[in-house]
Amino acid sequence: MKNLICIISGEPNSINSEIIGKVLKMKKKFNRQNFFIIGNYKLIKKQFDQLKSNIKLKKIIRIDNYDFAKNNFVLDVPLEFKNPFKVPIKNKRSYIMNCFKIAIDLAKKKKVAGFINCPINKFETFGLRTMGITEFLAKKEKVLGKEAMLIYNKSLSVSPITTHIKIKNVSKKITKKIIIDKSLTINNFYKKRFNIKPKIGILGLNPHNFEFRKESEESKTIIPAIKTLKKNKVFVYGPISGDTAFNNQSKKKYDVIIGMYHDQVLSPFKALYNFDAINVTLGLPYIRVSPDHGTGEGIIKKNLANPKSLVECIKFFSKING
What's this model's pTM, rounded to 2 decimal places? Predict the structure, then answer.
């Protein structure tokens, strides 16, 4: 359904119920973009009670012709717990995986326009420090290497070529093919969803692009990738030096800035836009977005969580679905 999305409640030991509750209170503002929650009904209800969130929930066990605009539905997923904010790892791991399984199935069957997942503890869920949701979903859909993590803001978006890996391994993972594949994924997404050919700035890897020496990654890998993309009529520019890419004059030139590693683009981006951003996984057979922040373990139950990024996730579906 074009105007229906689902929100995976995500990590139980987190601020997720707080930001979901704050979003439910402003439901009328979302331009008829209807949504429901995927999670454990009893858990979310108990968390709402502890947060003193006076929101009525209704439990459902399947998607039907419900009035999603007027009611707050939770598609119930089994979970055993005693303390609602201290769910054991062994219990929550399978629970989170089941939530994703349901959302993916609904998205593939076109019963929802896509899904939003609230943050999870990646290490406790996947058991790997290098595995994030982007990689998990790309691997599951057999598009690993062609997917792109897009941190989206209407003014400027960023995307890292490598994601959750150690800095010492970055240069080993950068290839001409992966730069081309991810850039094409981003370019095609903007053409399909926004009807524009984006202007893409591609950063070098080294300080001052290592002065473009022959042995540099810029000369051996990044420049050849840019030349191929230009031949494919993609509007790419670079390599751009990372230390000037985000100043006021430079950032206005681009719709997207692609960096070689995670913090090269995410650190300056978050300094500029804070919570006014969302994480979109491109290259999947469905739309998946998430708030661009973590689980907020240090502020659980303190009523300090900012719902801005989750709000932008919901608005994003209205934007791409017309």
Answer: 0.90
